[in-house]
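Dear colleagues,

For the upcoming journal club I promised to circulate an example of a predicted protein-ligand complex. I picked one with iron/sulfur cluster because it came up in last month's discussion. The inputs are reproduced below in full, followed by the predicted structure.
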Amino acid sequence: MNLSKTNYLIYQDCGKNAWLKIHKPDVYFENELSAFDEGLIETGNEVDDLARDLYPGGVSVDNRKDFDYTAKLIKEKTPVIYQPVFQTDKYQIACDIIVLNEKTGKYDIHEVKASNSGDDKKKKTKNELYEKDLAFQYITMKEAGVDVGNLYLRRLNPDYVRNGELDINEFFTKEYFTERVLEKEEAIHEEMEIAYDYLMQEEEPGGNCSCLLKGRNAHCTTFAYSNPDVPKYSVHDISRIGLSKRKLEDLIDSGIRDILDVPLDFKLSEKQENQLLVARKKTEILDREGIQEFLDTIEYPIAFFDYETFPSAIPRFNGYSPYNQIPFQFSVHVLDEPGGELKHEEFIYTDTGNPDEPMIKALQKFIPEKGSVIVWYKSFEMTRNKELGIRNPEHQPFLQNLNDRIVDLEDPFKAQFYVHPEFKGKTSIKYILPALVPELSYKDMNIKEGATASNTWNQIVRGELSEEEAEAQTENLLRYCELDTYAMVEIFNVLKRLI
Ligand code: SF4
């Protein structure tokens, strides 16, 4: 068996996880891919396809096992090859694009990433991984007898702003990775050998999962398989415990796994202590004064508001940069006065054009000119309003006014005015709603969460659904977003009843 580049890169994150993928695929693939992961895969494919336009007219190797066809294309000195595949005794790769350099007579490798790298710290970590990615390709191609020239990384330029036709040469960066990879070639080659030996061993690697010392968010999907002694609600679920390595280490070293077994005198933050207190006593913490103070900041008429958006890697409209969110839908429940009649308004844009202008018009029509705009996790909605204002400066004052009136319904939960055992240390609406309003649930909805909503909208506007399917899915999107804002109304009512 050969070691593929994909598995080598998973090994960089965790050897055990890569071993399970190779030797126990039933365990590794036990959980279905999330809508979010599916979206990432689709985005990656879309960006790969677009990158081919950087070197048009190439020949594609469509079969991932067609090593002979690739060898033939190389022998014929085919100028541009998409997805060529190579293998040696130990390794196997599929490159994105290789281009014959007429001056050197060697093939340059262009590795395409659907990433815009984020901040400098993230960029450094990613660059180290990309160095290994390109080194793996370089070493494998060389061992397969191909003359390799330069190594380039082609990722998305975060500073690119679309203006008219997509400028593909501006959209993709062209970063020279040759020297930095060659400097590390020997060390990476040695590590590839170690990875090969580790991943090809028949016997399952023993020892503890290192994620025992990380918070729940860091765990991979095989955590439960490798750690059957860890209950579903464990010390890993203590709020922000992943950021307090020492505390988690102390608990694990003392053999403590269940959240209810944490000693009473164990030093935790106030928030963490509250989480454990309500879990142990199966009770609630209620700060009525705090809730009252929060409710006093809200002014009628109240608009309970929520956007749905799609993060498009490839900017579709003028003014958009890679991964800017396209707001395509909103729901708003309006309450004019205490005890008044609740009204619902909604908007969704399913044409192929830019939704900005019709979206702003609908906001102007449906959101009251005065009063509070209640959202959950305000930085998301406020950033969308800010971006809409930058792209549509004539509406900036209106959008700024919306932002000035935003109140975050998550705040009283973040401030610990209300702590419930079923919140499990979280303040996301997906935890708060079932605990406070159990009769209202996303369970029976056709669309249950935001990533599915995004992907569904994308399928509609891309024309990937039949007319009937698109109609049914548009209705599903409307009902999903409506529930998001209705959930806020109900949570608001619960808070009011509590005081
Ligand atoms: S839970 Fe962590 S250490 Fe265990 S297999 Fe997954 S990634 Fe590796």
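Two points we might discuss: Residues 3-200 form a domain with the Lambda Exonuclease; Chain A fold (CATH 3.90.320). The pocket of iron/sulfur cluster is lined by residues 14, 16-17, 209-211, 219-220, 222-223, 226 (CB under 6 Å).

See you all on Thursday,
B. R.
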